[in-house]
């Protein structure tokens, strides 16, 4: 392939590697693995990279892979990262290559990301003579909780990189559209669990108890005011109570109730203030009702923050490849989260969404499926991003 002209990159990749990319994707899709436990997926990736002129390191962050391609010159080192893990969901797509493992499914497209990165590795190895610097292909476990990205960074995977990119397939965006933005693109995602403590008793004698169910209900309602009444209206924030539980019998007032939730923010100062506000409100409400509350707050993935220059350049590269109509500068971030954030804390880079269509079921649903024509397109984009990162 000719490095100077990338216009036909997608069709060339489709022709040369399309079948291989799609076969790998289906193979990974059939046998999803969770968290850090991506051993078989990593073996499939290694088999698909066999014969390429790559220095390969395995066992990174348990079952991750880092494969390095050295080009001719001493140009920049560009990282390309894909996630490999699946979700604890039972698939309902009806695809011929649907998950063969009950309760596990690639419902976030990470099978696609991994295959697209393998496609880019093949394309870039084929263009090695025209490659001025180094490309590091990073296959990461445990994106869906577990923070595999953080572990990879701790193990030194980001060291020496000049820039880094990751793609995510994106339902809701027109098929093939490339979208990103400068600054925050995904939110910080933190979690809390709260125990409400009252006094248990007979369902017929509430005056002798402090009803943890009623206290929990009031706390849930009060928590709705944290974002609406305490956060600047122009500052994005979400507080969702996703879990609530109490009680063992219809006629017993339980002593305890449990509430669990997630908090999403884009601003670090606000993020740091949230636990104190949640705890003060929950305890105030609970104590006013003769109970109390304790909060266990866990900071998790930080804000995924794109570098302004690198993300602008990524949009330019996408326009060069696919034309203006296929490229979108996002007006707003998503309040979802992504552990690619840990790489972007160290290295200027961009997290880029690749549309799989507006009528596609959402990420993390049992029906999520996408047209595999997107795979060579994603490979072409990763390839061009690595080649053109430092071009004007
Ligand atoms: Zn996901
Ligand atoms: Zn994902």
From TrEMBL:
The Mn(2+) ion enhances activity. Mn(2+) binds at residues 108, 110, 144, 168, 364. Keywords: Hydrolase, Manganese, Metal-binding. The keyword Hydrolase applies. GO terms for molecular function: metal ion binding; N-acetyldiaminopimelate deacetylase activity. Its cofactor is Mn(2+). It comes from the Bacteria. InterPro entries: Amidohydrolase, Bact_exopeptidase_dim_dom, Peptidase_M20, Peptidase_M20_dimer. GO terms for biological process: diaminopimelate biosynthetic process. Residues 192-283 form the Peptidase M20 dimerisation domain. Pfam families: M20_dimer (PF07687), Peptidase_M20 (PF01546). NCBIfam families: amidohydrolases (TIGR01891). This is Amidohydrolase. The lineage of its organism: Bacteria, Bacillati, Actinomycetota, Rubrobacteria, Rubrobacterales.
């Amino acid at each position: 392939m000719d490095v100077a002209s990338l216009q036909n990159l997608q069709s060339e990749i489709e022709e040369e590697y399309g079948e291989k990319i799609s076969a790998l994707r289906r193979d990974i899709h059939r046998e999803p693995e969770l968290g850090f436990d991506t051993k078989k997926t990593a073996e499939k990736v290694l088999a698909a990279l066999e014969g390429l002129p790559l220095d390969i390191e395995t066992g990174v962050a348990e079952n991750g892979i880092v494969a390095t391609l050295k080009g001719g010159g001493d140009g920049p080192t560009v990282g390309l990262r894909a996630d490999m893990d699946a979700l604890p969901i039972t698939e309902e797509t009806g695809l011929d290559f649907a998950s063969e493992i009950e309760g596990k499914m690639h419902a976030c497209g990470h099978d696609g990301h991994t295959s697209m990165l393998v496609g880019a590795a093949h394309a870039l190895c084929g263009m090695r003579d025209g490659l001025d610097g180094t490309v590091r292909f990073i296959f990461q476990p445990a994106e869906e909780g577990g923070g595999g990205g953080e572990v990879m960074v701790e193990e030194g995977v980001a060291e020496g990189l000049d820039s880094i990119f990751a793609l995510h397939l994106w339902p809701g965006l027109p098929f093939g559209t490339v979208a990103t933005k400068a600054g925050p693109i995904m939110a910080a995602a933190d979690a809390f669990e709260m125990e409400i403590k009252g006094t248990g008793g007979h369902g017929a004698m509430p005056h002798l108890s402090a009803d943890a169910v009623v206290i929990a209900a009031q706390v849930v309602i009060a928590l709705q005011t944290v974002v609406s009444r305490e956060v600047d209206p122009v500052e994005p924030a979400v507080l969702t109570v996703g879990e609530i539980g109490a009680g063992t019998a219809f006629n017993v007032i339980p002593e305890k109730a449990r509430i669990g939730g997630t908090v999403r923010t884009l601003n670090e100062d606000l993020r740091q203030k949230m636990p104190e506000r949640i705890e003060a409100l929950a305890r105030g409400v609970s104590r006013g009702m003769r109970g109390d509350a304790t909060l266990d707050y866990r900071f998790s993935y930080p804000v995924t923050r794109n570098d302004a220059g690198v993300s602008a350049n990524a949009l330019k590269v996408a326009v060069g490849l696919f034309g203006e109509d296929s490229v979108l500068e996002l007006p707003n971030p998503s309040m979802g989260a992504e552990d690619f954030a840990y790489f972007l804390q160290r290295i200027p880079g961009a997290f880029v969404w690749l549309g799989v269509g507006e009528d596609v079921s959402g990420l993390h649903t049992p029906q999520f499926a996408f047209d595999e024509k997107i795979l060579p397109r994603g490979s072409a984009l990763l390839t061009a991003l690595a080649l053109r990162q430092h071009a004007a």
